[in-house]
Amino acid sequence: MIFGFCLLSGPLHASFIEQTMGTAVVKDATAIYFNPAALTLSPHYQLILLGTLARAQFEFSGSAQKVPFGGSESGSTTTQSNFFLPSMYLSIPVSERFVAGFAVVANDFNRELDNSPILRYILARNQTNNIDFIPALGIKINQFLSIGGNLNVTYAHLVQEPIAAGIPRLNIPESRSLNDSKANSLGGDFGILVKPGKKTALGFNYRSAVAYNLQGRSTITGSQSISSDDYHFKYWTPARSVMTLSHFLNEKLGFLGTVQYVQWDIFKTVSVYNFATQAASRVFIIPKAQINYHFHNSWLLTLGTIYQVTPKWVIRVAGTYNQSPSNGRFQIGPGDSLITGFSMGYRLMNALSVDLGYAHAFFKKEEIDIQTSQSRITGFNEGAHDAVSLKFTLTV
To answer: Were both Cys, which of 145, 200, 218, 355 would link to 276 (CB 3.0–4.6 Å)?
Structure first.
C-alpha cells in the first residue's frame, strides 16, 4: 500500500521586487510585513494595494517501484501550481516618532497533477488558502536608529485529495480521499533600522516560526465509504532572519543587498492522525502515520539596483540565489534556484503611483532517491516559476 499523502509548504509570497529588493529596508507601507522598523522611513499616510499572479511547473522523470512486490513504472509526471496573492497595507503616522500600520496578506494556491500514473499514488492534488492580519508599529529612537514589531494573526485552510490504488484485475477501483483541515495561529516580527547617513540604511528583521495545529475531516466515498472527524496534524512556517544594506550613490542610482537565513530544520517529521485510506478492497482509518521531511536550513542572497530615470519613472532590477531546503532522500522537491526580475514604477499624480513587476525562477535539477517500506522512487525533478505583480500606492 502506498499512501498518496504529501504536504506542501506554503510560505507567504509577495511581489518579486518587495520580496527580494531591500527586504529589510522597505521605504513604503509594505514595511509592515517586511520590517516594521522601516515604517519610520516614510512618515506619511499611505495605502498600498498589491496583487501577484504566479505559476510554477515541475516535471519529475524517473521510476517508481512498489515494495515488496517489485512492480515498477517509469516515465514522467508534471505538476503545476497556480498562485493568487492579494494584499493591502496601510501606514498611519501617529507622531514624529511613532508610525502605526495594518496589513492584510492573503495566499491562495493549488497544485494539480497530470494523468501520468508514475506518481499518481505518491503526490496529491491540494488547495491552500491562507490569510494574515498584521498590526505593526515603528518607533524612531533618534535620527540613526528605529525599531519596530508586528503581530501576525493567521488562518490557514488546507485541502488534499490523495489517491489510493485499487486492483483492476479484481475490479477494485482506485479511490480518492478528501482531507480537509483548518487552523488559526499567531506569529510576529521584530525589526531594527540603522541609518548612519542620508544615503545608507541597514535593516535587520527576525520573523518567528508559526505553528499550525490543523484539524478537520478525512473521508473516502465510493463503493465503500469511511470518514474520520478527528483528522489532525501539526505544521509550520519557518523562522527567518534577514539583513539588508541599501546605499544610494546619488539621487538617482542606488544598490541593495539582502541576506536571508531560513530555519527550515523545524521540519524533521510530521505525524498525521486519523486519516482515511484504502488497501485493495478495504477502506479504513490509520490512527497515526509519520512523514519524513528532514529539511535543512537555507540561505537566500540578493543583489539589486534602483534607478530613478525621471521624476516620474523608476526602474528596479534584482537577482536572487535561493538555496532549496528540500531533501531528495525524503521528498520530491525543487532544487536550488536563480531568480531574476525587474519592475517599473510610474507616478500617475502627486499622490498616486503604480508599479508593474515580473520575475522568473530557474530551478536546478534535483536528484530524487526515496526509499520507504512501501516504495522506491528514483529520478530527477526540475521546473520553473513565473510571477507578475501590480501595485498601487496612494500617499497623502
So the answer is: 218
